[in-house]
Amino acid sequence: MRALPYLFIAVDGGFILYWLITVLHVIPAEHLFNDYDNPLMVAWNWSFLPIDLAVSVTGVGALSLRRKGIAAWERLATVSLVFTTSSGLMAISFWAIVGDYNLSWWAPNLFLLVYPWFFLPRLLMKA
To answer: Where, by residue number, does the polypeptide cross the bilayer (predicted)?
Structure first.
């Protein structure tokens, strides 16, 4: 459990950074996913904004409650981890369905899918 706050900081910060980079069009074209200019792909990518922001808001909230010694941080952390694994699953499912196996997009999304499962069982046992 000691690693969880650091992972929250990295993931929450990573999501916020990703969306800032996306809004500012900082990622070079050669590193964008296939068909990035397709309006449906743009809409698909932006469809992740609400869940990614939910990950960040609940993760930051959980860290704040933890710092204050409020036990409810574990419930909020559970919600954040469920949002995180869901976001990863949504992306991996999509890339698998369209047959795009680019490691630069799969690796971070596999991480988002899998890392919460190292913490969810313990948090759920406490609930």
So the answer is: 7-27, 47-65, 77-97, 103-120
> Which domain, by its residues, includes 106?
4-126
pLDDT digits (tens, 9 = 90+) for 4-37: 999 999 999 999 999 999 999 898 877 787 788 8
Q: Do the beta carbons of residue 62 and residue 80 sit within 8 Å?
A: yes
Which tokens hold the place of 81? 């981890």
Q: How is residue 102 written in tokens? A: 């680019």
Residue 114 CB neighbours (<10 A):
14
pTM of the model: 0.92
Contact 52, 19 (CB under 8 A): yes
Amino acid at 41: M
- Asked whether 80 and 59 are in contact (CB, 8 A), the reply is yes
| Residues 28 and 101 sit within 8 Å (Cβ to Cβ) | no
The dihedral built from the CA positions of residue 25, 27, 29 and 31, taken in this order, carries a sign that is negative
